Here is the input.
Amino acid sequence: MYAIYSDSVLVVPSASLMQFKNLLLILDMLTFCIDYQKKIDDCKHKIEVARSEVVPNDEIDRLQKDLDEKLKEEQLLREELR
Here is the structure.
């Protein structure tokens, strides 16, 4: 299919016009997908940051055990002072 020039106007056969419209549609879909992939990647990054800021359960358990021991020691010392 060839373009025909008529009075300085480009005349494109309708099949080529349909192909062009289809290409534009595909380009729009690709742009849409790229934008959403960026949003997904941003969310994944935010999740990783949030996870890195959370103290693991075993660390919380260890700290709670240490606190309980210290409180028990304090209680025993208070009783000794009485």
User: Anything to note?
Assistant: The beta strands are 4-6, 9-11. Residues 14-53 form the longest helix (40 residues). The two ends are 104 Å apart (CA to CA). The first strand starts at residue 4 and ends at 6.
